Amino acid sequence: MKKHAYLIIAHNDFEILENLIILLDDMRNDIYIHIDVKVKKFDFEYFRSLVKKSRIEIFKKINVLWGGTTQIDVELFLLEHASKNQYDYYHLLSGVDLPLKSQDYIHQFFDKNNGKEFINFDECVRNIVIEKRVKYYYFFVGGYRSQNLFYRYFTKIFNRISRTVQNILGISKIDEGSVYRKGSQWFSITHSLAKYVLDQRENIKRNYRYSFCCDEVFLQTIVYNSPFFAMVKRIDEKYNNALRYIDWEHGNPYVFKSSDFNNLIKSKALFARKFNVENIDVVKKITQHILNEL
């Protein structure tokens, strides 16, 4: 029996995480969840009790900051922990994602496409634009989404000045001749690629230390410059390889509502993000729809 690992990064809206776990609970799946250390209250026992068929492990280890390298750290942490059990596929999701298909459908899809890698690549982003995320040292990133307006303003100004000074001094962390690629951080990858990435984790930590938003760069860059790029499965432009329904045209990204239910269910995507508790109705409708298919 082929088995899959679901790696979930969560920090809020745990009612959605509850539905996500219920929909992933299958004897063919194991679930690994990381809860941000900033979360004050989280009922570990309740969430463990939601699982009847899968094995679930829940961690609370890393203070995850938007834009910072802690995003990479938590991905590598989950990937390293899960890979010890050698799964056929590893799916990275956020805690506000949902599957759009039943587990039978999802497993049949990956059986049919066995060995293919499902990673998003932004096709129209120039290398020089991506390099800005890697080239400079960003010493403060935690303030970009801080509730403290002064800290947020200070972070933006400091990093702007810092980049200017580094330019003048000719400081750069870019490897000359390297080709960088960018895309969504969410993926579905094979064990072979997972091990390939983990074998480079020390280089990843060194190369992307003090970088900015490189959770959207490091995996794409590794894969693009490796034999695994030939195994990246092309789906279509809308879902651009990663099987995720994410709407960047109407939001940052757009939060799905009840009126989006039919479009979500009829889409070719296997997963969707994002959802929130203010629009929990669509979450419940999707959950019930998939459970009714079982």
What can you see in these coordinates?
The protein folds into 2 domains: 233 residues, Spore Coat Polysaccharide Biosynthesis Protein SpsA, Chain A; 30 residues. It is built from 11 helices and 9 strands. The strands form 2 sheets. It has a 6-stranded mixed sheet with strand order 3-2-1-4-7-6, sandwiched between helices. Strands 5-9-8 form a 3-stranded mixed sheet. Strand 2, helix 2 and strand 3 form a beta-alpha-beta unit. The radius of gyration is 19 Å and the shape is globular. 38% of the residues are buried. The mean pLDDT is 91.
Distance between the termini: 19 Å
Task: Categorize the overall geometry.
Answer: globular
Rg is 19 Å
Instruction: Give me the count of strands.
Output: 9
Strand content is 5-15%
Sequence of strands across the biggest β-sheet? 3-2-1-4-7-6
- Fold-level CATH name of the largest domain: Spore Coat Polysaccharide Biosynthesis Protein SpsA, Chain A
Instruction: Output the structural class.
Output: alpha/beta
Give the helix tally.
Answer: 11
Q: What is the helix/strand order?
A: EHEHEHEEHEHHEHHHEHEH
Low-confidence stretches: none
Helix proportion of residues, in percent?
Answer: 25-40%
Largest sheet: 6 strands, mixed
User: From the 3D coordinates, which CATH architecture of the largest domain would you assign?
Assistant: Alpha-Beta Complex
Assembly state here? single chain
Number of domains: 2
Mean pLDDT: 91
Name of the CATH class of the largest domain: Alpha Beta
